[in-house]
Structures are given as structure tokens and as C-alpha cells.
């Protein structure tokens, strides 16, 4: 078991190559598995595989001469999923496709639940352009700008400010934005490494509603990927787009990094066929190890959905039809982590800076979140033994799930067919 390889060494010479393609770089690395190998992969591509959560502890990485387990490579360790077997922080990411669904408040309440269980928690306000965790915790102080700390390898603990809650510290978002020009692959790698090194058992990342490359990279690296939605039509529509974006990004990365041409041609050719089906067909066309690639891509997701601010049990219908849509558009379904009712007491506590004083004993919603949190602690990322492609549905879909010929979340309540009424989703008269 030979050389120790550092990710920073892997990618430092590409840090300024913002328009580089996979095909223009020297391919040196392969990932061995029981049925063969995946590769060759450039160092840059291998770094991106790490960021996307596509590497596993028992993967054997080789440069053609020496072999080593990915879990023992110094530079790889921050990107190996932590299922509780590693002595380092577990990353939970909380995101969604739409603002206003309660992600930030839910992140704070999850942190409070973990802290009350005796866990050391650090909340990172990763909504770089719309941060509000500092207001939720009633803090005046801001963390020092975290990007110079990341770039200089100083660690982030000095940016983790104590809160009024024992066991919870907060890293507020930087004063100036983390724009695309600053978001080099090396900085992203160093940021994830710094998060993993924080002196905490759980690090919770509260993301904004955007879906650009920087947020998706950090979201997909995490051990648990939580998506939050309210049962409103626009929130569900935006969530479905968010899920499609993260799945498409992983699939496209795997194809581009292994394609000999490096053309970057999109695998998406047919809007009526699920993304996973199209990607599998394209991989086979390129003579790539399609089944093994799909096995680890599908296994790399640890997605859970939380319905927030519900007022009745209709969210179960929304969940069912959302999964029907995702199965048709993407090729897989989401797992439900739980549902949280709308609570005026929570809203009042936020307005009066008293959220941290709520307890499960005094508030039924906090008690429900405590139960959800306990279940999430036990959720693990497991790669399946085999990849099985589910056949496409051939039976006709109930027309009630469509509006104007398009899938919509307002089934059952739409008056569009009645003359003079306005579509509640697309505002079509």
C-alpha cells in the first residue's frame, strides 16, 4: 500500500483553468472494483468525483504502478461518506428549490435537537447571499470572513461563534459573496476539508434556494442530503427541478470524466425519458462500465425529504404524486423523513428571538422534530450490491395529474377547465 496522495497536489496546477475540459488533461488514475476498473481519470476529474460523493472507502485507487484504498489516502478522506464509523464531523446539508419554505428555521431546530441530545453541533450559514442564522440565534457578532481562512489552511473553528445554547456554535456567512470566479476546485476542496476538521459531531449547512455549481458541490458531498418543501404547488415544482439538477450534474460528470472525446455533449436527448435511463443508454453507447457507474451514482445519494408547514394530511398525496413525477422524469423516488405542521408558536418565537427557548416538552412541533432528528441520525449512505433499472411505466397516467398537458402539483383543485378561471400555477387565463 504505497504512496500517500494529496488532493491539493492533484489540482493545484489546474486552479486557474476555469474553462478546461476533462479530455484535455492527462489521465493517470483508475478506480478498481470487483468486476474491472473505472478509468482512466485525470487528477482533476478524480477531485470532482470526490466532491460529488462518488468515492467509497474500499475503492482501490491506482496510477498504474501503486495501489491504495481510497479511505486511507490523506487527500481523499474528507470526501469519504461518514456513516458513524469515522471520528470526524458528519455533514448534514439542508436545501430546497424555493425560498420561504422554512429551511433556516428547520436547520436551527434540528441543531437544537442534536444539542439537547448531547451532540456538539456547528451550524454553517451557507446561504452566502441571504444569510439569517445570526438573526435566528439573536447574535450581533459576525464570524470573520471564512474564505481567507480556507485559502490559508487555518481551519474554521475560530469562525465558529458560541451561541446562547450549550453545544451549538455558529459560522455566519461571509460579508462578501462567494462568486463563481472565486469558486475554484481547490477552494471547494479546501472548504470541505475544513468543514470535516471542525471540532463537532455534526455540522449542519443551511443553503439558500439557488442551485448553481458551488451549492450543489457542497450539498452532494454531505453525508445526509435533506431537501425541505412546503406543500404548495410552486415549492413542489421548484423542488422537482432541484432534484433533477443534482441528478443530472452527477450523471453528466461521470460521463464527461470518462469520455475519451471530452466533448461535454449532454446525454439528455429526450424529454420524455427519465434521466437515469438516458444516461445508462449513453454510457453503453460510449462503451463505459455503465452498470457499475450507475450503481455507485445511485448509491451516492442519501436524499431525504421533509414537508414543512403542513396544515393537513394532504401532503401524503403530494408526496406520492411528486415521486410519480420524479420516477418519470429522473428515474427514482425520494424517501420521506417526516412532516412538520404549521405552528404559530414557532413563528412567534422567531419574531421575539425566543426560538432557542422552545423545548419538546413545551412544544409539540419541537417534539416532532426531535423524533425526525433521531431517525436521521440512524440513516446511512449505502451503495447497492447491484444496479437494477426499473422499467418505464407503460400504463397511461391519470389525466388528473396534468394541467394544460403539463405535470402540475395542483391536481384535484384546478378550475382551469371552467371558463373564466385562472390557472393557480402558471397564471394562464
Reconstruct the topology from this structure.
Blueprint: H1 7-11, E1 27-33, E2 36-42, H2 43-51, E3 60-62, E4 67-69, E5 90-95, H3 103-116, E6 121-126, H4 133-136, H5 146-151, E7 161-162, E8 168-171, H6 185-196, E9 202-207, H7 213-221, E10 224-229, H8 233-258, H9 275-285, H10 290-299, E11 303-310, H11 315-329, E12 335-341, H12 344-351, H13 364-377, E13 402-403, E14 406-407
Parallel strand pairs: 5-9, 5-10, 6-8, 6-9, 10-11, 11-12
Antiparallel strand pairs: 1-2, 1-3, 3-4, 7-8, 13-14
Helix pairs in contact: 2-6, 3-13, 8-9, 8-11
In a few lines, what is going on in this structure?
This protein has 429 residues and is an alpha/beta fold. It has three domains: 72 residues, Dna Ligase, domain 1, CATH 3.30.1490; 297 residues, Rossmann fold (3-Layer(aba) Sandwich); 32 residues, no CATH class. Helices cover 33% and strands 16% of the residues.
Textual characterization of the structure:
The protein has 429 residues and is an alpha/beta fold. The chain has three domains: 7-78, Dna Ligase, domain 1; 81-377, Rossmann fold, CATH 3.40.50; 398-429, no CATH class. The protein is 33% helix and 16% strand. It contains 13 helices and 14 strands. It has helices at 7-11, 43-51, 103-116, 133-136, 146-151, 185-196, 213-221, 233-258, 275-285, 290-299, 315-329, 344-351, 364-377, and strands at residues 27-33, 36-42, 60-62, 67-69, 90-95, 121-126, 161-162, 168-171, 202-207, 224-229, 303-310, 335-341, 402-403, 406-407. The strands form three sheets. Strands 7-8-6-9-5-10-11-12 form an eight-stranded mixed β-sheet, with helices on both faces. Strands 2-1-3-4 form a four-stranded antiparallel β-sheet. A hairpin with a 2-residue loop joins strand 13 (402-403) and strand 14. Helix 2 packs across helix 6 (185-196), helix 3 crosses helix 13 (364-377) and helix 8 packs parallel to helix 11. It is globular, with a radius of gyration of 22 Å. The relative contact order is 0.13. Residues 1-25, 394-406 and 424-429 have low confidence and may be disordered.
